[in-house]
Amino acid sequence: MDQPSSRTILLSRNVSRLLRRGQGYLSRRGFRVVTGRTGREILELAARERPAASVIEYGLRDLRGDVVCRALGTATRAPVPVLIIGPARPPEIARRCQTAGCTGYLASPVTSAAILERLASLLGVQLRRHPRRRLTAPVSFGRTIQEFLGYTRDLSEGGALIESAIRFPPGRRLLLRFYPGDREQLIQPAVTVRVDAAPGEDLYLLGMQFVRPAAARARLEKMLGRQV
Which CATH fold would you assign to the domain 133-225? Predict the structure, then answer.
């Protein structure tokens, strides 16, 4: 029997909009996202793409989510894990989807984080261990001579996203110095794990993973706590 693709995720259009930021996380782990506007279009895409998983809403334009879920196995000729997002009431809707074979039913309103967590579980991938928070602070790098690197976009206990005019390749190790306002600077070694072009700007977004973050955990927690 043909097996579904292990690198394609099929979403309905409204789910795709809700997971707009999460799609970057999926693509960095090698997954490709395709989107269908209607139930019939989702089934056509499923037959062609053989997705590893699908997330759809119950109230599609032309077909109910449970109808699409039941037909997906036939369209792909193999079982496909399906998450359906639908109303909490009446409870018959959730039961109808479960009878159709859906892997999980998420009652709306639902957050993108909750959807991504369930989807990551289905795909067997791990979500980011440390949630990031918005924080803008200047950053320099260097041990003896410090050079200006850029500004943080967000920060977590495990790393930072830095907007910079300098493009460092993945794997480059840097000694970073953060200057959070009038507080004492934070010095933290880090390694570049990804580099993306900043949308609409002649800059780069550097994904930095901290090396030995436990040594500075108290300072990081203090900085993050003040940014809530």
Answer: Thrombin, subunit H (2.40.10)
Q: Are 97 and 65 in contact (CB under 8 A)?
A: yes
Find out whether the peptide bond into 189 is cis, omega within 30 degrees of 0: no
Q: Is 171's pLDDT higher than 70?
A: yes
Encode pLDDT of 41-52 as tens digits: 999 999 999 999
Count CA within 13 A, CB hemisphere, residue 88: 4
Is 54 in a helix, a strand, or coil?
Answer: strand
Domain residue spans in the chain?
8-123, 133-225
What distance in Å separates the CA atoms of residue 46 and residue 74, rounded to the nearest whole number? 10
Answer whether CATH 3.40.640.10 is correct for domain 8-123.
no
Residues in the chain: 228
